[in-house]
Amino acid sequence: MKAMMIRLKPLADHWQEWRQPALRFGGAIIFLAMLAILIAPAQFPFLVGEPVPATTWFQDSINSIITYFVEWAKPFLRAVSAGVDQSVRGLQLVLHSMPWFAFMVLVTWLGWRLSGVGLAILAAVSIFYMAASGLWIKSMNTLAMVGVAIPLALSFGCLMGVLAAKSKRAGRVVEPCLDLMQTIPTFAYLVPLIVLFGFGPVPGVIASMIYAAPPITRNVMLGLNLVPSELKDVAAMSGTSRWQTFIMIELPSARQQILVGVNQSILASLSMVIIAAVIGGFDDIGREVLVATNKGSARFGEALSAGLIIVLMAVLIDQLSRAASMSDTLHRNTKQLRLGLIVAGIGVILGFIMPMDGIIATTSNIFRYSESGINDQLSQFIASYGIILDSIKNNAFIYALLPLRIGLEKSVMTMTWGVEFTDTGKLIYQAVVIGLFAVLAVRRQIGMAIFTLAVGYILYRGFTGLPWWAVTGGVCLAALSVSGIRLALMCFAMLLLITIFGHWADALYSLYLCAAAVFICLIIGCPLGILAAKSSRASRIMRPINDTLQSIPLYIFLIPAVALFQISEFSALVAIVLYAIVPIIRYTEHGLRSIPTQLIEASVAQGCNFWQRLIYIELPVARPGILLGLNQTVLFSLAMLIIAALVGARGLAEQVNIGLRSGDTGLGLTAGLSMAFIAIMADRILRAWATKLGAED
Questions:
Q1: Beta strands per DSSP E along 326-442
Q2: Residue 244 sits in the same domain as residue 289
Q3: 3-state class (DSSP) for residue 154
Q4: Interior/surface letters 642-667, b for 16+ CB within 10 angstroms, e for the rest
Q5: Is the backbone of residue 296 left (phi > 0), alpha (psi -120 to 50) or beta?
Q6: How many CB atoms lie within 10 A of CB 264?
Q7: What pLDDT, in 10s, does the model give residues 313-345?
Q8: What does the alpha-carbon distance between residue 371 and residue 132 come to, in Å, rounded to a whole number?
């Protein structure tokens, strides 16, 4: 191995010398091939087809391994299932036995103790809403699952984080595992777990543990690695053992970072528990939202009422965990603490000795009446404006989504556009695209020339008509340009595996829907981010909205989309945009606010007006930060795509859902891995691009 590394070292040393020629040669080959397939695709069938045939060998092998493992480890799996199930049932029993008023008083006191009156009011309102809605038992069932999943996730994540921080070899293994755990779609976790543990709360709890472990693991690793080496040296000179140094020096120093990870893991666990409701077997609030949402506008009131419980639960847990992680938690004097504790104790006692079921019965009736009223109002709204909503949905699909999916070549028809895309029109289109490319290339605007050619080709053939070699060549050249040969080879291997899995067509559909959502997020989110950066008032208005959107579990975004546009591909797109737009807004604002004031003052002194400063100075300087926001928007879109399969999205998300419904572990995992590969490639390329731009600036 060492000899091989020595032989490869000269290759790496001369990388800068041959990278540019390699990029030019690869770009020329791709251009000529795209030109050939654009003009005469029938003459070059080998350029259209996939390089290797798909096989079901991987799926069959995974299913065989899972079946063998279930038979071999049946006693162990039953023991784990029984332990988790009994833990959930036990916590469920405790929560059911506690009166809602007593629980509200306890949580309100905790909010007051950690942050003050504001958080106490939020806690009281949230808990009262859960009880008053008549969904108290279902809310506590959800909380019971979260209460078991969080300790498991924190224990497992902390252990992995410490191991990775203390051992470089372990870190090299843990890092890619964390990447997969955070990029594999949430439903894909459930597919093998149903086979292993059956239906009920156990798969949901274990899936939540797996999904919520990476945030705490990464933050433990980061916190321990950021401990100053001077502190460790002082501890070593003082004669402390490695264990004493870890407990007394390193953990206290990393406390803040670890608590940030705890907050993120709690929210991730709650989000996954809600998603796990799709497998059924547990009467929780997620199941209530799922059933109501699937009825569309007929039960929008019930879906909204139950969805607000999930939102309030997520926001409350987020704020409580954030307050607990702050180093400046309120310090109250003994008299205040004693008084608060006495009041809370009296409230808990009153909750036990004075049942308030009559109040809840009245409020739940009011809620049911309000839900019926909301349903009626929405029905009237759809009856009045349904034509407009259908027009928006249909026009967006016919004139935007369908051309992106299958291309103008197939989507422009007399029955939809009112015109036919004739052979003459196709020749004119091809000539315009090639002409624009040539003009830009002659002016040495190579980046814009490639972008124009790619957009023109996609609009002509559609995402689902992209040949394998074009996507693979473009992605590998992009990776080679921004990073190096290692990332390019990794991208090539991942794209080849997607093809071998038999999910290439599904991957192109997922890429199309994700690209459409990201484009909409860019054209809406970037202006909003600029507005927030330039106006403190706009920033104050947008900040709580963004906080709420990022605290809401993914499934809630389906409720308004389905209520207005029914179950359709357009509804899936709306839900993805609502979830994925926040990062690009925040990173654009942060990037513009981080520009040095000296640069702004110099541009003003040179006589630049507002738009000149923004376009020629501020946006170019803020590009690395905006690219990181774009990276997060892409990852958020892919994460939401799997949930959108429930309301009309197809592609890889649909394959994962089919695997979940049919118990086909091989299908679900290979489709999930394919989505993970797309997310990892996008993440690595965009991060490398942002780093490169930052280094150039």
A1: none
A2: yes
A3: helix
A4: bbbbbbbbbbbbbbbbebbeeebbbb
A5: left
A6: 18
A7: 878 887 887 787 665 555 566 777 777 778 778
A8: 13
Compute the distance between CA of residue 232 and CA of residue 224 in angstroms, rounded to an integer.
11
DSSP 354: S
- Which pLDDT value is given to residue 632? 85
Q: CA of 240: how far to CAs of 209, 221, 223, 229, in Å?
A: 35, 22, 21, 15
Q: Please, is 60 exposed, middle or buried when counting C-beta atoms within 10 Å of its C-beta (0-12, 13-18, 19+)?
A: exposed
Work out the angle between the directed axes of helices 168-183 and 201-225 (0-180°, nearest 10).
Answer: 140
Cβ-contact 535, 592 below 8 angstroms: no
> Which residue range is the domain that position 605 belongs to?
19-59+470-696
Q: Which residues contact 70 (CB under 8 A, 6 or more apart)?
A: 77, 195, 196
pLDDT of residue 249: 81
Does 6 reside within a domain?
no
Measured CA to CA, the distance from residue 669 to residue 501 in angstroms comes to 10
Cα dihedral 368, 374, 376, 378 sign: negative
Q: Is residue 375 part of a domain?
A: no
Instruction: Give the gyration radius of the chain's Cα atoms.
Output: 28
State which of 295, 329, 363 marks the end of a domain. 329
Structure tokens at 243: 């264990």
Residue 1 confidence class, pLDDT cut points 50, 70, 90? very low
Q: What is the spatial distance between Cα 596 and Cα 588, in angstroms, rounded to a whole number?
A: 15
Q: How far is the C-alpha of 666 from the C-alpha of 61, rounded, in Å? A: 7
Please state, in angstroms and rounded to a whole number, the distance separating the CA atoms of residues 680 and 183.
7
Cα dihedral 124, 126, 131, 137 sign: negative
223: nearest Cα among 178, 247, 256: 256
Q: Choose the most confident range, by mean pLDDT, from 126-140, 268-282, 290-304, 453-467.
A: 126-140
Given pLDDT bands bounded at 50, 70 and 90, which one contains residue 564? confident
CA 302 to the chain's CA centroid: 26
User: Residue 515 in contact with residue 404, Cβ under 8 Å?
Assistant: yes
Same domain, 193 and 266: yes
Helix 504-534 vs helix 652-662: crossing angle, to nearest 10? 120
Identity of the highest mean pLDDT range in 28-37, 63-72, 122-131, 609-618: 122-131
Contacts with 258 (C-beta within 8 Å, 6 or more apart), sequence order: 158, 216, 219, 220, 223, 251
Count of structural domains within the chain: 2
- Among residues 128, 109, 122, the alpha carbon closest in space to that of 343 is found at 109
Dihedral of alpha carbons 244, 246, 250, 255, sign: negative
User: Which of 279, 310, 329 marks a domain boundary?
Assistant: 329
Question: Token pair of 90, please?
Answer: 């036990």
Query: 15 versus 662: which is more confidently predicted?
Result: 662
CATH number for the domain spanning 684: value is: 1.10.3720.10
- Report, as an integer, the average pLDDT of 419-430: 84
Residue 83 inside a domain? The answer is yes
How many Cβ atoms are within 10 Å of 555's Cβ, its own excluded? 23
Q: What tens digit of pLDDT does each residue of 639-668 get?
A: 888 888 877 788 888 888 888 777 788 888
The answer to whether residue 133 is domain-embedded is yes
**Cα dihedral 243/245/246/252 (nearest 10):** 140
Q: Are residues 486 and 561 in the same domain?
A: yes
Whole-number Å distance between alpha carbons of 329 and 327: 6
Q: Supply 79's token pair.
A: 């023991």
Same domain, 590 and 490: yes
Closest-CA residue to 83 (of 168, 171, 205, 176): 205
